[in-house]
Amino acid sequence: MASNDVKMLIFGLNGEHYATDIKEVERILGYQEPTILPESPVFVKGVINYEQSILPIISLSRKFKLGEDKEDENRKIIVIKREEKKFGIIVENVYEVRDVNSDSIEVTPSITSTIEREYINGLIKLEDNIVISLDLEKILSSEDEDKIF
């Protein structure tokens, strides 16, 4: 791995490829249906039992206003560590972990909204795909955190 390479986890969501720095990921779990909590934010799918504690599960599809999560046997839950707090995100598929040269990550075009640009690091050009690089630590605002944790 070259000094300007970043290890990225590439996953699918609504037919698109997304990536995040592997350092943000604690574990990848098989999908389990979360327990729904009444009056939770619309993007919170529910909670699951994870390592003897409660893990909030976030639907990125709902958070990004892409509709509902697709029900598929390949679905996974990626556990994200954020300081002492953890949460899970639902993804359609986990494709690979690969080294990505940081020079190949391009700035997000201004066609995306300002809010979205907060948690989009940029676009990665791979052989046959454009992958959206996410900063999952910024996915939840402090208001979101107050409602969830």
TrEMBL record:
<dbReference type="InterPro" id="IPR036061">
    <property type="entry name" value="CheW-like_dom_sf"/>
</dbReference>
<dbReference type="Pfam" id="PF01584">
    <property type="entry name" value="CheW"/>
</dbReference>
<dbReference type="InterPro" id="IPR002545">
    <property type="entry name" value="CheW-lke_dom"/>
</dbReference>
<dbReference type="GO" id="GO:0005829">
    <property type="term" value="C:cytosol"/>
</dbReference>
<protein>
    <submittedName>
        <fullName>Putative CheW protein</fullName>
    </submittedName>
</protein>
<dbReference type="GO" id="GO:0007165">
    <property type="term" value="P:signal transduction"/>
</dbReference>
<dbReference type="InterPro" id="IPR039315">
    <property type="entry name" value="CheW"/>
</dbReference>
<feature type="domain" description="CheW-like">
    <location>
        <begin position="5"/>
        <end position="145"/>
    </location>
</feature>
<dbReference type="GO" id="GO:0006935">
    <property type="term" value="P:chemotaxis"/>
</dbReference>
